[in-house]
Amino acid sequence: MRKHYAYILECQDGTYYTGYTTNVEKRMETHNAGKGAKYTRARLPVTLRYVKSFETKRAAMQYEWSIKQLTRAQKQQLMEGTSNELTKKLSD
User: How far is CA 36 from CA 44, 61, 64, in A?
Assistant: First the structure.
């Protein structure tokens, strides 16, 4: 069965971009080739900072949406793995 992923990129200007994909490696290549999201095109290169896999597209997209609701500080905690309560809350 195909895996689905929610991910966070750090852009060259220090901002974060959150997205969904079924192929992280290919999506990173697309972003860094300037063919990804408009947001990242102007902020190249991008670096993968966080990725989480899911069994269903729905779960991955719900998690992506949840990440987008977080503050910058909360996203940093998530990426550093120091947000056990936050991770649990997002996964519920």
Answer: 10, 17, 17
Confidence of residue 61 (pLDDT cuts 50, 70, 90): very high
Domain boundaries, the chain: 4-91
28 compared with 84, residue with greater pLDDT: 28
Q: How far apart are CA 23 and CA 17, in angstroms?
A: 16
Options 2.60.15.10, 3.90.380.10, 3.40.1440.10, 3.40.50.2000; which CATH number does 4-91 get? 3.40.1440.10
Q: Report d(CA 9, CA 17) in Å as an integer.
A: 5
DSSP string, 39-85: HHHTT-S-EEEEEEEESSHHHHHHHHHHHHTS-HHHHHHHHHT--HH
